Amino acid sequence: MTSCRRTLLVSQSLMDALGLNLLIFLPLIGAVVVWVARESLAQRLALGIGVVTFLISVGLWLQLPSVMERGGPGALVGENNVQWIAVGERIVADDGSSELLNGVALHYHVGLDAISMPLVVLTGLLVPLSVLCSFTAIRTRVREYYAWLLGLTAAMFGVFAARDVLLFYIFFEFTLVPLYFLIGIWGGPQRRYAANKFFLFTFVGSVITFAGIMYLGLRAAQIEGVDLISFDLARLSALLLGPGGLTVQEQSLLFLAFFSGFAIKVPFFPLHTWLPLAHTEAPTAGSVLLAGVLLKLGTYGFLRFSLPMVPEGALVWAQFMGWLAIAGIIYGALCCWVQSDVKKLVAYSSVSHLGFCMLGMFSLLPIGLSGSVLYMVNHGISTGALFLVVGMIYERYHTRDLDKIGGLAWQMPVMAFFFVLFVLSSIGLPGLNGFVSEFTVLFAAFNSDLLGVWYGVLGASGILLGAIYMLYATGKVLFGPVKEPEGTPDLSAGLTRDLTPREVVILVPLAIVVVWLGVYPRVITDTLDPALQTQVLDRVEDAQIARMAREAPRIAHHEPVIFGIEGEAVPGATTVEGGAQ
Amino acid sequence: MLAAAETSLLDINVYATMPFWPLLGALLVGLLIAFRAKAQYAHWPVVLGVAATAVLAVTLFFDLGQKLPAPEGDSAPAVAHGDGHEVDVHHGETDAHAHADHDYPGFTHTLYNWMSFGAEESLDEHSNRWIPINFYFDGLTGMMLLFVTVVSLMVVIYAIGYMRDHHGHPEPGYERFFAFLGLFVFSMVMLVLAGNFVLLYLGWELVGLCSYLLIGFYFRKPSAAAAAKKAFIVNRIGDFGFALGIFALYMFMRGHVSAGENPLDYEVVFKYAGSLAEPSGYFGLSQASLVGLLLMCGALGKSAQFPLYTWLPDAMEGPTPVSALIHAATMVTAGIYMVARCTPIYELSPLALNVILTLGVVGAALTATMAVAQHDMKRILAYSTISQLAYMFVALGLAVPDSGVFHVFTHAWFKALLFLGAGSVMHAMGGVIDVRYFSGLRHVLPKTYILMLIGCLALAGVPLLSGFWSKDEIVHAAFDHSVLVGVIMLATAGLTAYYTFRMFFLCFHGKLRLPDEAGENPHESPPVMIMPLWVLALGAIFVGYLGVTFAVGSGEAFIGVFKPHGYFHDYLHASTIGHPHHGHGGMWLMYVSGVVALAGIGLAWMRFGQAPQDEPDRKILGPVWDLWNAKYYVDEIYDAVIVRPLRGIGHFLFGVDRFGVDGLVWFVSAVPRGLAFLLHFMQRGALQGYALTMALGIALLLLLWRWIDVVPPDVAG
Questions:
Q1: CB of A332 within 8 Å of any CB in chain B?
Q2: Fewer CB near the terminus (10 Å): N or C of chain B?
């Protein structure tokens, strides 16, 4: 029986590995097929591939609890580890297998854990929807469009699945190209400028990140006393801290190197200026994926790399990050309020929202990290959905100017329902998904020993400002007397005055998720929390201990500080809190 | 410690379904809308859902009533529950330590764990802490649910008739209206039942949402859309403080709770509330003061207290049943409920109580004067609501929360009655509600006339109606505190009687005048609207007797029969309110307040009994009247001092964003700019541009790689 069971498990994990590879390569193959296929097939083919990847991602997600039960909180679903590129001397054993002695090795190592899984499922959900929303919006160079969209999909799945830092970096950069074309070809009037700006901002930043990764790989070999340089995530996340390991100076600098790539992607104030432009000019599907998934590459990068790899660097910069996050929250919100372009408004709201996400992350508390990951998912859903709705309005009225449209709730009641629902999700109405993450994130910042009360207070002003600008937009678009530009609504290509069934089908899944995650967020957090603990928080605690050990001789009355939410249970915690202000 | 989750009449799990029936109804109506069913019968799911909740609430009221401790004044301290623990009878002590380990009679029923505080394996495997979905049952819960659900049911039934045109056809949006009402009742019951602060916040925000949706029901009217937005945002200002209060509460609590206890559950917070007497380390406040003041901010918004009351008069843009239910009887009392619920925290903080008292006194007097100089019937009632809510706040500030809740309770009935009566007038007048355009309506609306008279008498505080008993308790407590507060409260009571009957006489007395909108033959409302009014009218007359004891022949009784404090207070004492200290002020005060109410009515009769067309007050008061009419220009001041500057900052920042930040980044990135310039030429053909970009990127990467190789890292660190 046991062996039978084991066989089943083995075959199950093989299936998972196959599934994960399909997730990455099916869209890639699909992209090629769509490009060469007949124009009339492109839409349906792309949609089919999108749906299949979604089902695969859900299938993998369903495996997660049982895999974690067997393999612990860090277990990977669909793990796959193949040496890809290797340069160096080999030793050949008797049975013919060889092992690399020195040099550089790049592994195709993929696998999903509880941290990346929610983002993969989010991607899986948003891709078919953004294909579906392009049916009427994209009318030129259709095959190319869907090919790039599918290429982007492959890169997005790859980036979350990568367990090798170099592989991550390859996928990370690979996301730029398809989006560059999606914006540059199918975008609005300023699309060229927007695409270039987007590309250069993110590219230049990530080059510095790349340098940091190289350095860390070299340094890892040095610390471990081996000649083999590899970039395995687990390996680089477990480097020795303290004497003989990574120094604080190194970690601080490496943190900055990572920062330059990830912060631009987030986008973190004041490096956000590419975003409103890119969003405004991008086609709807581009905006949805950009806001929904691609911005998360930045936050995910911080969580996955900056925190566990250079935890002391993270501790050094945590307050700086906190202040920037708060500046972003308030700045983004105030900018939103004065926009007249509704798409730009939603774009600026991303700046504000991702400030919340980063604030929670750099509280470095369990609840903050958990809230931060939830925030990534929730922002992807609600902002993605808002972009979808705005796109549907734009298709009919050919304007996004808040002063030219109004009272649409009367014309489009179904649209109004979804618009209001997603706005409410976005401003953190309890019972919907946004609340859970917003509340926990602010909660964490407020109660963090590292950030502290004032970070929480200033961050919480975002919940007020968020309501102001979102309801301002809602009032302008939906309420008041009906206002429509001349000659609209444009009902070509089978559009109707209110949403068509196809458009309702796009929005309904998102609406369901909005409510579901608001009522039962544990569908994510139950597996996420232990994974965060072992993969990130334990590492941060090690850094805390290393820091204490370093400072211990200098402090006359040394009191142990345990880092965590239990602050008051431990003597000395108050001093840390005091110091944090 | 705490009583087991047991109820005798129905299973606890049945009570726990209470909030969900109206939600179910609302969802069914939503389905009807989605499938474009006929609107004619769309009210049924919601009416039945609310009715189910009301039945459960009444049952629960009696169920919890069986567990009451013996009335106050008995020699032995009351026994709270079967587990033998005694309720600590204390008389207004402010000594923190007396309350340190207080047990509050009530029990929590958990549905499921909602939000996690994150894994805390590093500390203790079992220390996983949750924010659950749980309900707290005690006397306060039972009392609140009783009137919330019954008044809701009456309003929902009334709306069946009200939301139709003269031919009995449903108005556009009829189904939507009932869906929102169902959602509201769900939210309000959640708010009252919530067993922890985050769930309270959930109910709090959801009722705010319903308020937003229903104020903006006639969303094509710009004023309605603006009022809805204003209501939500002003409430959010308060909620900002409220949320911070919850954060702070957790911060202070987390060190005290033991494993398995969720630090934001009422049960746990109130158990360890004694620890909040310690200093907080911020602004020199104690923990209780800090938490109390922050939580109070939420109440300022939701219960329309000074200075955040400005949204409530505008909220009258909503349909009248909404004004009656949400903006008079139930939702706006949530702030009072919350402060009363948190009595164990507030009794540790004299400072917070004083702030509450001051804001209450200012608000009560200020808005009563505004009400004197308004023309719109619903706005008069709205200002009167603010004034009455401020009365309740005064009671909270005077540390007699049971009197405050008593006034909440009585106020719900007669204010709902008044609003629905005003709605009946509006219905007959074709939507006109300005008292300058009609008079003498007692001839055409005889039933409404009687019903409104009952409501006005109760609001004015005429003896023997329910408003009298509750208002008098607050005036009593005010005089116990200081003569100044007492006199202001009494004067406000007089003003209340005056403006209420000014409205009443202008509307119903004098010569019959009708606006054009009323049509040829204005008629009384249909029975579906009048019947609920009779129920509310009975409430307006009789519910006050729950709060008095019959003591025939006693020297300490009003007109020799009624002694203050009755079943209501005993019922509430089995809650977190505990046993507040009531002074034993002289019985003369009751006679005085009765006389003041009658004097106010008399004055109103003298000046408005014939429904004069010119404003007689304006001639006497002149600019003061104009100031009252303009509501002291508070809205204009807020706009000039807060809204415009903030938006100006927004414009400034956006300008900075476009030119400053962007320019700076652009300037710093001189190299990429060059690249962009190159790309600009290479972008004519997509593929070539791509190839070049990639080539450049790879070259750059190789360079960097090389550079790293050349410069090995410093091993010494």
A1: no
A2: N
